Amino acid sequence: MTGGEVGTGEAIVFWVSGTLAVIGALGMVISRKAVHSALFIALTMVNLAILYVANSAPFLGMVQIIVYTGAVMMLFLFVLMVVGVDSSDSLIETIKGQRVAGLLLGIGFSILLIAGIGNGLMETSSVGLNAANSAQGGNVEGLAALMFGPYLIAFEVTAALLITAAMGAMILTHRERWMPKRTQRELSQDRFASGEHPGQLPPPGVYARHNAVDTPALLPDGSTSDLSIPEPLRAREDVRDVDHADIEEVRQLSGGSSSTEGEDR
Amino acid sequence: MNPANYVLLSALLFSIGAIGVLVRRNAIIVFMSVELMLNAANLAFVAFARMNGNLDGQVVAFFVMVVAAAEVVVGLAIIVTIFRTRRSASIDEPNLLKY
Amino acid sequence: MTEIIPAEGIFGLLWVLIALPAVGAVILLFGGRRTNSWGPYLGVLTVVGSAVLGVLMLLAMMDQPAEQRTVVQNVYDWVFVGSFQASFALQLDQLSMVFVLLITIVGALIHIYSLGYMSHDPDRRKFFGYLNLFVAAMLILVLANNYLLLYVGWEGVGLASYLLIGFWQQKPTAAAAAKKAFIINRVGDVGLSLAIMLIFVTFGSITFQDVFGQASEASEGTLTAIGLLLLLAAAGKSAQFPLQAWLLDAMEGPTPVSALIHAATMVTAGVYLIARSNAIYDAAAWAATAVVVVGLITIFMGAIIGSAKDDIKKSLAGSTMSQIGYMVFAAGLGPIGYVFAIFHLLTHGVFKAGLFLGAGSVMHGMNDNVNMRRYGALKGVMVITFITFMAGYLAIIGIPPFSGFWSKDEIIHAAFERNWVIGAAAILAAGITGFYMTRMIAMTFFGKKRWEDDAHPHESPAVMTIPLIILAIGSTFLGMALLFWGNIEEWLEPVVGYESVPTPLPTSFYIAVTLVVVIIGAIIGWVMYARKDVPVEAPRGNALTRAARQDLYGDAVNDVLVVEPTYRTAQALTTFDTKAVDGFVNWTATFVGDLARRLRRSQSGFARSYALSMVGGALIVALALILVRL
Predict the structure, then answer these.
(1) What's the whole-number mean pLDDT along residues C587-612?
(2) A120 min Cα distance to partner chain C (Å)
């Protein structure tokens, strides 16, 4: 593992991963679509995990990938699906001057931080974690020794916090049922009680010659049924006439007598 | 190269996250920006742990992750609840608590 | 000093004297409507009971030697704070005794008279409750053995006076008169309370016994201040100049009230106060001189006002002012005058009560019309009223042997013992008294009928005439009885002191001059108002008459000196308050309000705005940290 100073290999990792992380962050802020933002921040997080590993924190790197990219980001994506994938910000800023002020303040803040850190830290030397990591036999063991030692109470409290958060999320998203669930029987009764046509409407007339939706179906007495024509066509009066000759022809084709109409259909 | 560069990177990411919080209106993206700021802080913790030569910083970063996970759960639940009632994920929509 | 003996025997019932009318007042005022039927009779009975008790006490006191006639009864310890000790203690001595008799006997007669006079009033019960309250308070006033308890009675009679003047409060004039009496009395009461404080600071005690025992030890300046403050109190209560303005308006009250409170008893409380505090005035010559001056001014003011008023009650009120002026004047003369001040107070209490009740009887028969220009020739219609009124008339102008003659003559004589100028002034005032009283009887009982069309004069019922007769008998014989049989100088001497100074001329000369002046005044009055016809509409009159009709511009002076400046000051303060004080407060509120109205815009409800300000704050903190580090 790396020591206090940054070697050439690590420097390359830093510049590549760091650049990617910044690109991801900027992309997250700039993207109009929320899904793109989520993907960009996943990129940042993965690169941060790499940087953790480079910083002698392999356990945190793994946790970062599992918890953030694995769990948290998936949660984000779930919520995005609920809220609507396509939802994108409108370009009109609701608060006057917020965008400019936010940018200015953010940039000023970053300049101030970077200047301050640069001023304060650039001359410091780094100790490195080799000794600390090897003291307990490894990074994970070292962390465990701390977590279940001096930080035990904080650790237990975070457990309680997680449970509480889970409970809170459930309560927040819980939807109370105001009325008992309706059974199939009740739904069916409602359907008939409403007075509308309860079943299937007749399909359009289908003949050997015509197989089109604008042809009305023939009723047993030989008349046509308007219900079999889709409403838009009826509104446009785009209904094909059915003349009697056709009916006769059909009858002949079927070889039946003409005394009774449509009995053998 | 000095490990302090990690801290500089963390400051940069933190600022970008802050800008995101201030500029974006989609509550989910604002939330992502908050996560980014937390991650930037974690990076600083990790870098400082390395520079100081003890693992306390990493432990704190771990706790930050746990708390962030809890926060994400509750925060997203709130966003979903608000979306359910207002049919919008805009952070400017719920602004009734004012003068 | 006379020795003080604790109350025993009949004197153990001293507290009952006060308790009887006090209980009557409580029952009548809090008993509600269920006492309506028998309440007035209960009110009369309590006062009659007190009167009987008073007479028994007088008989018991006369059995005692002169030095053992001061009885003190401590009812209970009242205010005991550090060195300030005021007991609810009653003191009965010769001075209190005569007052107790005057208050209870005249009070009882007026209560009986009121049964008839107020018989048609729907609030009779309340009226008798107030009267009982007055009698109780007045008895506390005269029986107190310290100044604080006296002050309680003083305020009590003031309250009763206020309530009774405003008894017909549905009349705006009555309500205003009540308020006026109350407020002017407050001025005097402030004087009394300041006097009590000064007395306590000076002597360390407020009981009469301690104060008068040490009076000679205090500096004359302090005593003069106390004396002047007590004079202010007396002027307020007794309607003396310059606080005289309320008495004439007080005639808005029912006539029995005018007779009892505003003629016979309460208005003489000032005289009582001065006579009681004789030790202070004896040691403060300037204060005593001020008393004389105030008394003399009031004698003439009252007489002049009484000569000009056409309202019979107001004319009598002017006369009351004048006669109380005589008393105050006599009290200011010092040991030669106190006795005669009290003597005149007693005779005046009786004959003025008789005159007022007579006037009430006349009004009763004349549909409550008070305008004397609408009377005339009533002597044949109201025989009893006429005869009793004449007894009072002869008493007040001082014709021997009627009671006023003896007391007024003694005052005039005492004035000559001091100084012939004030003596001459007193004689002149007696002449004016003769004039205005003759004018009154001439306009009322003689001359021609000038009645209103709907007036049907008739004699009053027996319940009203019997008190009149008793008071007329008192007016006739009380002076002689007190002087020759009761020996009033000797009786009062242990309390107020008495001395007589020889005068350059024999006593009979002064008597003769006084009688001549009085008769001249009476003849002028007779010629002007009985021989000539009295016009129904008052003629314009000369400047003095017009001034007297306006109460000698007392109200105008008060307006200019007190009311107007107070009003303007109040207005200025109101303006200052609204413009400056409220202005500043309102400006502050407006400023904060405006600021808040602007600042609250920052509470836009947008989470991102809040985040922006948070980042801004973080930026400033970071900047500050870096700047400090650099």
Answers:
(1) 89
(2) 10
Is the bond leading into C401 cis (omega within 30 degrees of zero)? yes
| pLDDT band of A226, cuts 50, 70, 90 | confident
pLDDT of residue A257: 52
Span C73-103, pLDDT tens digits: 888 888 888 888 888 888 888 888 889 999 9
The H-or-E segment that residue C80 falls in is strand C70-81
Minimum CA–CA partner of C609 in chain A: A98
Minimum mean pLDDT range among A48-57, A141-150, C2-11: C2-11
Quote the pTM value.
0.63
User: Best interface-test mutation with A: which of B14, B21, B36 has the largest number of A CBs within 10 A?
Assistant: B36
pLDDT at A258 over 60: no
The secondary structure of residue A54, as a DSSP letter, is H
Asked if A229 reaches chain B (Cβ–Cβ under 8 Å), the answer is no
Q: How would DSSP label each residue in C89-125?
A: EEEE-HHHHHHHHIIIIIHHHHHHHHHHHTTT-TTHH
The residue with tokens 């819980």 is A174
Nearest to B91 among C603, C607, C612 (CB): C607
Q: According to CATH, where is 1.20.120.1200 located in chain A?
A: 7-85
- Alpha carbon distance C384, C377 (integer Å): 14
3-state class (DSSP) for residue C205: coil
Handedness of CA C324, C330, C332, C337 (dihedral sign): negative
Q: How confident is the model at residue C3 (pLDDT cuts 50, 70, 90)?
A: low
**Lowest mean pLDDT, pick from A235-244, C339-348, C443-452:** A235-244
How many C-alpha atoms does A8 have within 13 Å on its Cβ side? 0
C444 phi and psi angles, rounded to 5 deg = -90, -50
Instruction: Confirm if C135 and C50 have CB atoms less than 8 A apart.
Output: yes
* Sequence-ordered alpha helix ranges (H) in B1-99: 4-23, 27-52, 56-86
The tokens describing A58, both together, are 């392999």
Strand, helix or coil for residue C352: helix
Distance from CA of B87 to the nearest CA of C (A): 18
Q: What stretches of C335-461 show up as alpha helix (H) in DSSP? A: 338-365, 383-397, 403-418, 420-445
To which residue do tokens 């409507």 refer?
C33
CA proximity to C277, closest of C239, C241, C224, C317:
C224
How many Å separate Cα C391 from the centre of its chain? 25
Considering only residues 50 to 89 of chain B, which have any Cβ-Cβ distance to chain A shorter than 8 Å? 50-56, 58-59, 61-63, 65-74, 76-81, 83-84, 89
Q: What is the DSSP letter of C466?
A: H
Please, which residues bridge with residue C90 across strands? C73, C144
Instruction: Provide the token pair at C467.
Output: 């008190």
pLDDT band at A42 (very low <50, low <70, confident <90, very high): very high
CB-CB neighbors (< 8 A) of A16 in chain B: none
Long-range contacts of B78-81 (CB under 8 A, 24+ apart): B78/A172, B79/A79, B79/A83, B79/B27, B79/B28, B79/B31, B80/A79, B80/A82, B80/A83, B80/A172, B80/A173, B81/A172, B81/A173
pLDDT for A263: 44
Query: Which pLDDT score is estimated for A259?
Result: 47
Distances (CA, A) of A185 to A181, A182, A189, A191, A199: 12, 8, 6, 10, 16
CATH of domain A7-85: 1.20.120.1200
User: How far apart, in Å, are the Cα atoms of C325 and each of A58, C136, C244, C264, C266?
Assistant: 118, 26, 11, 14, 14
**Which bin fits C454, alpha (ψ -120 to 50), beta or left (φ > 0)?**
alpha
pLDDT at res. C134: 92
Q: Which other chains touch chain A, taking contact as 3+ CB pairs less than 8 Å apart?
A: B, C
